[in-house]
Design a protein that fits this description.
single chain; 312 residues; alpha+beta; three-stranded antiparallel β-sheet; 11 strands
């Protein structure tokens, strides 16, 4: 990269960042809060590996972390408005009719009990049950790139059944217990209502068959959702009869039924797996753009690890 192109890229980044801060300004009641929010963003984009309050404050030229902390804990601003602004910004730059909306969760490890939603619960971040918060996220993925467009904090029943605990952490009065799939359904509904273009939704077995599947079919959207090995499947109206758990069906497939394909490029070359797809049934869906009935096929897709035979 030449010196001129580096300068051009940096100038474009700086201009884009100024535009983002300008968009954020209406979310804050005071100029001071908006300024500190902009400095907070600068700190998050810095090259420090651990972005603690003190490190962000030092990068912003502040004598201590309290201004940065005020943005998160004391200043009044519209968090959901910021969420929607991020979604619209992502759509402007990455929109594609064939995009995928990816639903997933992550855990934030904690030591104490005061953080909102913290509890002993399973998180893939640690690979075990531990003290943590769980956030459910929606990411927009297209041929142009990928970015988060929605988020929700999962509140276990130990929190939603304890009004005093909710009040102490400033949880709004209208918040009630929602499962992770229910939070995901709300995210999908918000994306649809905002006109976010996407063709597919992807999620792991936490968000498998159920309300998400029903709602996506009604919206005319395709999906690839993980299921547990003991989930029961049955076909109807298809030449090949399928019945049994996902694991049982996978183990009864002939060697010639599998097709070896790459799941994308990895650090060591193509990520090859054996794949098997079985059509289960044709159902009526809805074309969300034209409000007409469309053919919608439900199927079971099985991925087998070629090294150890593990199934997904």
């Amino acid at each position: 990269m030449t010196g001129a192109s580096i300068e051009t890229t940096l100038a474009l980044w700086a201009s884009s960042l100024r535009e983002v801060k300008k968009r954020m300004r209406p979310l804050f009641e005071q100029d001071r809060a908006a300024l500190n929010a902009g400095l907070f963003v600068d700190g998050l984009l810095g090259d420090e590996r651990r972005k603690t309050g003190w490190m962000r404050a030092e990068a912003a030229g502040d004598p201590g972390p309290w201004r940065q902390q005020a943005v998160l804990g004391r200043d009044r601003w519209d968090a959901d408005g910021l969420r929607d602004m991020v979604r619209d910004y992502v759509t402007e730059h990455l929109a594609d009719e064939n995009a995928v909306l990816v639903i997933d969760e992550t855990g934030f490890l904690k030591q104490g009990k005061a953080s909102c939603g913290v509890a002993r619960q399973y998180t893939g971040s640690a690979g075990k049950i531990t003290n943590c918060q769980i956030g459910v996220f929606a990411a927009y993925v297209s041929r142009h790139g990928h970015a988060f467009i929605d988020r929700a904090l999962y509140l276990p029943k130990g929190w939603t059944d304890d009004p005093a605990r909710l009040k102490a952490t400033y949880v709004p009065d209208n918040v009630s217990f929602l499962t992770k799939p229910q939070l995901a359904v709300e995210m999908i509904e918000r994306a649809l209502a905002a006109g976010v273009p996407f063709r597919w939704v992807a999620g792991d077995s936490v968000y498998g068959v159920g309300d998400i599947e029903r709602d996506l079919r009604q919206a005319g959207k395709g999906y690839v959702l993980g299921v547990n090995s003991n989930h029961w499947f049955a076909s109807w109206g298809k030449p090949q009869r399928v019945a049994g758990t996902a694991e049982e069906i996978a183990k009864t497939q002939r060697r010639s039924d599998w097709r070896r394909l790459s799941a994308g490029a990895g650090t060591k070359g193509p990520r090859l797996h054996d794949w098997r797809y079985l059509e289960l049934a044709d159902l009526q869906g809805e074309d969300s753009n034209h409000h007409s009935q469309v053919l919608w096929t439900r199927g079971l897709l099985i991925r087998r690890n070629i090294a150890n035979g593990d199934l997904a």
